[in-house]
Specification:
The chain is an alpha+beta fold and 635 residues long. The chain is built from 16 helices and 29 strands. α9 packs across α10 and α13 packs antiparallel against α14. The longest helix has 30 residues. The termini are far apart.
Length: 635
């Protein structure tokens, strides 16, 4: 009888598979990842190789059930040009690098620039589905939003967009949804979509087993939710059980790339998940040529979603939660210490963890006020232990926050706040142009325009022409750099040119020494590569509060203007004129000064060492210092 039942089941499965109407899409599967966890566990090479082979065979078998044309290759054999011959490329292995890792440090050994290796061309425009951490490894260098938030995705999906095409065809299926407990990690965190998480959530099983139920299973990856959907070519399709907030992205799309965060091979997927995976392949196939518009080059960039967490951190409820967690941690450590002491008293050998526990001393609990003082030292001076003061501060200034340079935090954009217009509202660009046109505060207008766009126009007329032509297509992306961009892939439209902007990225504050009254001006120099292959030399002056240097000096004034001289090696030439940041009118005579910061840019064609000599004079309202000269060198 059992044999008859088994035979019947097999016939049913074969019948179901035979009923699948295969797609004509041509699929390239690029393998190389094992089914087992090799990141946190040491596995011998033979076991890894066998696992990779089984996984590739499993994907080939499943894909051929849904698609008529399937090619399977290993990652080391992949080249981006191969994708031109296929409708969709599925990346499940790390290919060879086409660009090396970039890691630059300062004299103190601090990293001032870092880029992961590049595996795909910047302009890669073929549809691609990337599995688990491949989304981050392959996407980081080209600015995909499918970044590495956490390698902690388990077996279930939640917050599923049930009306999305991947869950509705072309291959039909019926999803089994069950109520399951909310992941422990998300229960004590404010759910970004509003309030705290419920005790249970409707979930859909993607994998037969996850790392929480079967040790050694390969772990999936979720991407950061902050700003994921702040550009029109990106969408969140599903969340998943992970160690992060509930809105972490388990399945999502950015341009022509689809992130499938779950790590299981078809052999370990549920039957429903196999069908959804095949639907996802069909879905991404329609985005050929639709490259990302917004690019996320800084995967740790703060977005306004973080304000909710900051505001929550200042509440007494958060403090109580932290206090409770600390008490539970101390209790556990005390128990481990007691166990170690008992073993020691018996003369038993202690391992390294037990040795550490012997030295454990519980710390005194902090008060709510001490917690605020540590986490918000500047705001504490304003609000002390007034919980409402912090809440009002974050709420009232939500429209004017911007990233704090050199840190994962916020500062208030006083220019935006002075206008009373949110820095994500296109009206702020219109008003900034008006300031330039009217001449009432042209410097403020120019600061705002260059702060919140990727454009580099010089005149109000140029800014006005660009704004009027594109205002109906503007969107604001925080994950893409806190800038307005144009919803178009037309390369002739200004405003979306990331390669130029990334080459002009500001020097991080720690690269230039801090200023003080004895050293009111500090200089830094960097070199970046432009898309046309030329070099761009960027000089940046950090100017102490209350001081200024001179951009240009009227004939009637006795001050010394800032001069920049380049000493170039043989064969190197300057391309175009020196570009510099806008200054501030100093008097009615026509003298213009730089305050806080001055930036100079010069394009250079040719190689070799470059020396830059800067002459300047620094003054404040009381004194003027003697003219100074600084020599800066860049290789």
């Amino acid at each position: 009888m059992k044999h008859l039942i088994l035979i019947g089941f097999l016939l049913l499965v074969v019948g179901l598979q035979a009923g699948i109407k295969k797609s004509n899409l041509k699929i390239l599967y690029v393998g190389g990842s094992p089914d087992i966890n090799t990141i946190s566990e040491k596995i011998d090479s033979l076991t890894v190789t066998q696992s990779v082979t089984r996984r590739m065979a499993s994907f080939e078998k499943m894909l051929k059930q849904y698609f008529k044309q399937v090619m399977v290759i290993r990652a080391e054999d992949y080249r981006a040009s191969l994708s031109d011959d296929y409708d969709v490329t599925i990346m499940d292995g790390r290919p060879r690098e086409i660009e090396p890792e970039v890691r630059k440090t300062d004299a103190a050994g601090r990293i001032v620039e870092y880029k992961r290796p590049g595996y795909l061309p910047y302009d890669f425009d073929r549809p691609m589905l990337m599995i688990a951490e491949m989304s981050s490894l392959l996407g980081s260098r080209i600015g995909l939003k499918t970044d590495w938030y956490c390698l902690c995705l388990d077996a279930d999906a939640h917050h599923i967009r049930m009306d999305h095409p991947v869950f509705n065809g072309p291959f039909p299926m019926k999803m089994t949804i069950k109520m399951k407990p909310t992941p422990e990690a998300a229960r004590d965190l404010p759910y970004f979509k509003g309030g705290f998480a419920p005790d249970s959530l409707p979930m859909w099983r993607v994998q037969k087993e996850g790392y929480s139920t079967k040790p050694g299973v390969r772990v999936g990856m979720v991407s950061r939710p902050g700003g994921f959907e702040d550009s029109p070519e990106a969408e969140v399709i599903s969340g998943g059980v992970s160690a992060k907030t509930l809105d972490a992205v388990a399945i999502g799309r950015h341009g022509n790339f689809l992130h499938w965060g779950f790590a299981a091979s078809p052999a370990d997927m549920t039957e429903e998940a196999k069908t959804v995976f095949a639907n996802a392949v069909v879905y991404i196939s329609q985005f050929a040529g639709q490259t990302p518009i917004a690019r996320k080059y800084d995967d740790g960039i703060i977005t306004r979603d973080g304000l909710r967490m900051l505001a929550y951190t200042a509440t007494y409820a958060c403090f109580e939660s932290l206090l409770k967690a600390e008490q539970e941690s101390q209790k556990m450590m005390e128990q481990m210490k007691q166990t170690a002491l008992e073993k020691q008293s018996k003369g038993e050998e202690l391992n390294s963890l037990e040795q550490m526990c012997l030295n454990y001393r519980a710390s005194e609990p902090r008060s709510y006020e001490e917690n605020l003082q540590e986490r918000f030292p500047e705001l504490y001076l304003l609000f002390g232990a007034d919980e409402k003061g912090y809440a009002d501060y974050f709420a009232n200034n939500a429209d004017y926050f911007m990233p704090k340079p050199g840190s994962y935090g916020f500062i208030i954009d006083e220019d935006a706040r002075s206008l009373g217009i949110s820095n994500k509202d296109p009206r702020i660009l219109d008003q900034a142009i008006c300031l330039m046109e009217e001449g009432t505060n042209a410097a403020k207008g120019e600061r705002l325009l260059k702060r919140y766009t990727l454009c580099h126009f010089e005149t109000a007329a140029e800014w006005r022409s660009w704004f009027e032509a594109n205002k109906s297509r503007l969107f604001f992306t925080e994950s893409g750099g806190w800038v307005f961009m144009v919803n178009t892939r037309d390369k002739n439209v200004a405003g979306n040119d990331y390669p130029v902007e990334s080459a002009k990225s500001p020097v991080k504050p720690e690269e230039i020494a801090e200023t003080d009254d004895q050293n009111p001006v500090r200089w830094g120099i960097t070199e970046e590569r432009l898309p046309n292959g030329n070099r761009q030399i960027v000089l940046r002056a950090k100017i102490h509060l209350g001081y200024h240097i001179y951009a240009c000096v009227a004939e009637s004034d006795p001050f010394i203007p800032t001069t920049v001289e380049f000493r170039l090696p043989d064969g190197a030439v300057k391309v175009g004129d020196l570009k510099h940041s806008s200054g501030k009118a100093y008097n009615n005579a026509g003298t213009v000064v730089y305050e806080k910061e001055a930036v100079f840019r010069q394009e250079i064609k040719g190689s070799g060492k470059i020396t830059c000599v800067v002459g300047y004079q620094c003054c404040n309202d009381q004194i003027c210092m003697p003219p100074a000269e600084v020599e800066l060198k860049v290789k």
